[in-house]
Amino acid sequence: MNKIVSKEHFSANVVKLEVEAPLIARSRKAGHFVIVKVGKTGERIPLTIAAADTEKGTITLVIQTVGESSRKLCELNEGDYITDLVGPLGQATHIEKVGTVVCAGGGVGCAPLLPIVEAMHKAGNRVIVVLAARSKDLVILEEQMKANSDEVIVMTDDGSYGKKGLVTNGIEEVINREEVNLCVTIGPAIMMKFVSLLTKKYNIPTVASLNTIMVDGTGMCGACRVSIGGKTKFVCVDGPEFDAHQVDFDEMIMRLGAYNGLGKK
Amino acid sequence: TDIPRVHMNELDPEYRSHNKEEVNLGLTAEQAMMEAQRCLDCPNPTCMNGCPVSINIPTFVKQIEKGDFLEAAKTLKETSALPAVCGRVCPQEKQCESQCIYTQKLGKEAVAIGYLERFAADYERESGQISIPVIPEKNGIKVAVIGSGPAGLSFAGDMAQRGYDVTVFEALHEIGGVLKYGIPEFRLPNQIVDVEIDVLRQMGVQFITNCIIGKTISQEQLQAEGFKGIFIASGAGLPNFMNIPGENLVGVMSSNEYLTRVNLMDAANPESDTPVFMGKRVAVIGGGNTAMDSVRTARRLGAERAMIVYRRSEEEMPARIEEVKHAKEEGIEFLTLHNPIEYKGDARGRVTHMVLQKMELGEPDASGRRKPVVIEGAIEEIEVDEVIVSIGVSPNPLIPQSFSGLDVTKWGTIVVNQESMQSAVNHIYAGGDIVRGGATVILAMGDGRKAAAAMDADLKK
Ligand SMILES: Cc1cc2nc3c(=O)[nH]c(=O)nc-3n(C[C@H](O)[C@H](O)[C@H](O)COP(=O)(O)OP(=O)(O)OC[C@H]3O[C@@H](n4cnc5c(N)ncnc54)[C@H](O)[C@@H]3O)c2cc1C
Ligand SMILES: Cc1cc2nc3c(=O)[nH]c(=O)nc-3n(C[C@H](O)[C@H](O)[C@H](O)COP(=O)(O)OP(=O)(O)OC[C@H]3O[C@@H](n4cnc5c(N)ncnc54)[C@H](O)[C@@H]3O)c2cc1C
Ligand code: SF4
Ligand code: SF4
Ligand code: FES
């Protein structure tokens, strides 16, 4: 049981929770995630650790409501308890000084991007963040990103804020104007697929953080498997970050739809 | 010796194929006492050599014969932490019962040791008079257990009885390891495991769930917290796949995923948020206990056609004979001497067909089993909407990857001294599937006992 110490709404369906979890706060690194289960009949869902405070012994989760399980979590309030929470899971992000790094986040993918932006910036990189959302009220974490990077470009599908266009337009603008040494992308699978196609064209090394369906998150079930360069890998233990140019995104998108229309959701 | 071996009372196959009620109903007191009469109380009880924890078989059987059921349960508990579990899931026909004088010398069916063990343990539990072992004064020494499967639980029980301060760390949100997430309700009801765990709690064992050693807490932190001894019982959790085309299609999954969804997450229950496929034509690849558990589960979740696909013949199947018999009664089809070589799917990526290569038996291989060889050109395609791959598991890599100083084989198992279960690091012991790669409940428990005895001796030095 982990207590929620604070709750904040980032947008209508994106919530930030600060949760008591001293052991996880102490051992987590950028890129790590946790598995959360709400209630006795709840589902185990993976969520990135967006931030941690070792002194307070808390971790921060940013959750977008997409279905039943994320909704249950977002409905919890300050003072409530999360039934089960385990982590930190996955491999930490490889942080290194490479020069200029473009960090491209779409939708709720901006939350897991934040600790990576922070770490990359601390390591001495020039960090340019491209935040993409459908419209103005869905743009999150802009201030936090600004505080930890050299530049933030906001893209909205409808042009209601920042520039009108897709995340790929924003990235291409940077590529056209200066040398980019690394791209990190987190967001919906379809978005990461197009980012990957774009950076491949320009030969820019790219890391994608994959958000597959998971059950245990410890390498036990294989629900999270993806094809990387033709080889099967488990996202929860081998990832969640992989060389985007090796990822079979079409297969991943297909597998993400596995339980659609099963009645339960 | 003229009394015939007792038959287990079972639920009707048609009825039980639609629910998760336990298939074996247990023996009545009369049946148990009658069966116990068959035991000859051999002066040299060979049956005990077949039991990995050397349960005092003639003693407990004769206590049952006299009607001293609670005494029989006590005898069992002297050497086994989980008799109600072993009485249900031990491959008795390969262990104790295979060494019984009836099978060895008399050419008759063995005394039903497993059934009797289950009877005594169930009787004790149902009587509400569970004996909690008397705990000596606590010695204040802290020991840690990694993993709450049978190896970890038996170690914890033995160390608590010796006065240690025992903490069991478990990665999942439930205690019990495979007993909870793997073996289904219809074979081992969770409630039976919970009662045993409760006894350990009453003995002072502490359980910490949702805690992954090597991730949440490191090896160094464990030591810093004052744990003087560590027992690694992290099991074999990593599912193997065959790496054939189409294996990542939607609807193809490991038996671990399937059984975890159904058993640990209760996914077949409409109240549970976790989804699970309920295929109509389900193929399970493999011939072990896990495969039988998966295929019988699929049947219960509504499969009209539930098939075992196994590349050798039935004779080579590693599953317990009882499981194979029960599966057949429940209408499971056995496609032996068939091996999948590809899965095909529809436009949405859902599996629709499996392509099978027919096999025949050739010369015996290293394991002594006749090796399946391909019959050229004999290929068959069968319609399926769900495939469960159950071709074995590998040791859980979390601990070998995150602990320093351990000696690990190329298969990922931890190397220990066979007698003491001590690893290459002095105060770290290991047992169960993480050492054996994949074995049985009772072997895992035996390891836990051995490790407890050795660690105790070492810590008292
Ligand atoms: C390593 C990792 C880190 C993640 N970090 C975060 C995070 O920090 N914040 C956050 O909000 N979410 C994160 N996710 C995604 C999150 O786990 C899913 O949104 C959640 O499991 C959905 O559960 P649900 O029951 O609410 O929705 P469901 O009912 O399961 O799904 C609703 C819809 O969402 C789609 N969907 C299901 N799972 C995913 C998924 N994993 N990613 C994208 N779409 C999905 C389904 O296809 C369906 O259409 C992460 C996923 C992974 C694997
Ligand atoms: C479906 C199925 C059916 C079976 N049927 C039978 C049968 O009929 N008869 C029989 O004798 N055997 C059977 N077996 C085999 C038997 O269950 C195993 O041999 C036995 O459970 C091994 O016990 P263990 O204690 O070594 O590990 P497990 O039972 O695997 O338990 C290991 C536990 O450790 C936890 N863990 C792992 N890593 C960590 C970590 N880093 N930190 C904290 N916790 C961790 C895991 O979550 C797990 O709960 C079956 C196995 C399966 C999968
Ligand atoms: S524990 Fe298993 S092997 Fe030992 S006597 Fe009981 S059933 Fe037989
Ligand atoms: S060998 Fe068979 S008959 Fe002899 S003591 Fe053991 S169970 Fe009884
Ligand atoms: S979530 Fe089960 S193996 Fe990755």
UniProtKB/TrEMBL annotation, chain A:
Annotated protein name in UniProt: Ferredoxin--NADP+ reductase
Question: What's noted on cofactor binding?
Answer: Binds 1 FAD per subunit.
Q: Read off the InterPro entries from this record.
A: Cbr1-like_FAD-bd_dom, Cyt_c3_hydrogenase_gsu, Dihydroorotate_DH_Fe-S-bd, FAD-bd_FR_type, FNR_nucleotide-bd, PyrK_electron_transfer, Riboflavin_synthase-like_b-brl
Annotated organism of origin = Macellibacteroides fermentans
Binding-site positions, [2Fe-2S] cluster: 221, 224, 236
Q: Which SUPFAM superfamilies match?
A: Ferredoxin reductase-like, C-terminal NADP-linked domain, Riboflavin synthase domain-like
Q: Which domain of life is it from?
A: Bacteria
EC number, as in UniProt: 1.18.1.2
